[in-house]
């Protein structure tokens, strides 16, 4: 981890640059991660398919949640993109990756372009028409208005997004779409971008997560090329920023966004933002940024109702070569009510399994698969196990965590252990304090609140907690 303060003067608080340094450490080495994916696949696919497609694969790089996987040949590449990707995604999620993004290349493809810049996420395959040089919109062409199902849960957001795509910079500026995870926010804001570039190929649309935007800013600050940053972000026609709730309370970063926002807004360039809650409820957002964001239109997306869920499943299943019986779609819609991402994940899992085993995805088959994947997590976990696993993860002894020591390298693990006791076992604060040899339950309360806050703001903490959870349930 690079501590920004250690390298620069100024009033900037500590900034975590770990996500910039390239390969993310997910506990397992990247290669071990890929091996474990292969291990799981081997259990469910035919030996022939495994030998033909899977054995020759290689994980080339792993940055943030993005995996670049080398496959045998162009035919295999299509199979992976069309059929196997959902299965890989599901397995990766079980290993704690929240948003895995997969890209496949064949052994003969040049790798040059993939290794250099960790900031490049998704590159649109389309060239941006007459614009000079290559402009990376980072849009994913998979997200369009055409393949977005509209229901009462999202019709207003859909209409507003459509209006913005038709009249960028004129209608609702900024447009701020908010709602819980997996409800189609990223899909909608990317659809706006794709529609704009579809209609006006010369328009420059840039999609970035809040983390990418902030990291990019820090990177330019560090290399003393802030001018370049400014040019890059102001020389565009539409800026799409995803997951705004992750904007940390770092004044300087918010200032970068504030300035970019003002410059674009004044030039009537479109700003498109998504977050998991409205601006007023993002505690880390400075007041002036909040009021800027409220200048346009803030609109929410909600959980889809049953009919919408069935429609989504049928739409997604239509892209598969496996025929999904209507009853199975209904079964899934009845049983998965959390969010669309989970619905999609389960559907893909079922389709991929049915395909590999060569059987029809009946409701019974779906039920069986879902039951297996749900019971994969044993429910009987003890406080002791959580403390032990957390300690081991940080290469400490349980006694260290339970000791009165205030050393920094012990305090964080202790706080995370408390957090997990609460999140996994729903223990009371006094009980948590007691487990860790504390008399005062307010320490537990504060520790848990602190980790709760940091998880939302700091990707390193988020990843650590996710990894420990995986170890606990492994
Ligand atoms: P969010 O950004 O809100 O967490 P996403 O936009 O990533 O959610 O959506 C999760 C998945 O669900 C994506 O694959 C997306 O295409 C799909 N999805 C969500 N809502 C819809 C919808 N109304 N119609 C079709 N697909 C949807
Ligand atoms: Mg999203």
Give a structural overview.
By secondary structure, this protein is an alpha/beta fold. The protein folds into four domains: 23-115, GMP Synthetase, Chain A, domain 3; 155-300, Rossmann fold, CATH 3.40.50; 306-375, Helicase, Ruva Protein, domain 3; 383-473, Orthogonal Bundle (Chromosomal Replication Initiator Protein Dnaa, Chain: A), CATH 1.10.1750. 53% of the residues lie in helices and 9% in strands. The strands form two sheets. Strands 5-6-7-4-8 form a five-stranded parallel beta sheet, with helices on both faces. A three-stranded mixed beta sheet has the order 1-2-3. Strand 6 (238-242), helix 10 (251-266) and strand 7 (270-275) form a beta-alpha-beta unit. The two termini are 27 Å apart. The structure holds adenosine-5'-diphosphate (ADP) and magnesium ion. Adenosine-5'-diphosphate is lined by residues 148-149, 154, 181-187, 312, 340-341, 344.
Strand content: 5-15%
Q: What is the number of beta strands?
A: 8
Unreliable runs, pLDDT <50, ≥5 residues? 1-27, 110-132
End-to-end separation in angstroms reads 27 Å
CATH superfamily of the largest domain: P-loop containing nucleotide triphosphate hydrolases
Q: What is the name of the CATH architecture of the largest domain?
A: 3-Layer(aba) Sandwich
Bound molecules: adenosine-5'-diphosphate, magnesium ion
The amount of helix comes to 40-55%
What order do the helices and strands follow? HHHEEHEHHEHEHHEHEHEHHHHHHHHHH
- Domain module tally: 4
What is the molecular shape? globular
| Rg from alpha-carbon coordinates | 23 Å
Mean pLDDT over all positions: 83
Question: What is the CATH level 1 assignment of the largest domain?
Answer: Alpha Beta
Strand order of the largest sheet: 5-6-7-4-8
Class derived from helix and strand content: alpha/beta
